[in-house]
Amino acid sequence: MEQLLAILKEIRPDVDFEAEEDLIGKGILDSLDIMEIVAELGDAFGITLSPADIVPANFHSAQALWEMIERKQR
């Protein structure tokens, strides 16, 4: 999780990813942020995200992202 938070902070240093739980609904992350996150997650965690994975539910919080990463690593 610490590696994920570091990646997110690198992309958006202005956001408190540990506290924020509605990144998509509040418009904190836009489509360009999401595409950058997808690329970084692939490199950092050795996962491949399909279009079916790129849905708001998987990106609404750091915890949701982490849970998706764990699922993809299984």
TrEMBL record:
Stored InterPro entries: ACP-like_sf (IPR036736), PP-bd_ACP (IPR009081)
Entry protein name: Acyl carrier protein
One Pfam family it belongs to: PP-binding
Domain Carrier: residue ranges: 1-73
Taxonomic source organism: Candidatus Scatosoma pullistercoris
Superkingdom per UniProt: Bacteria
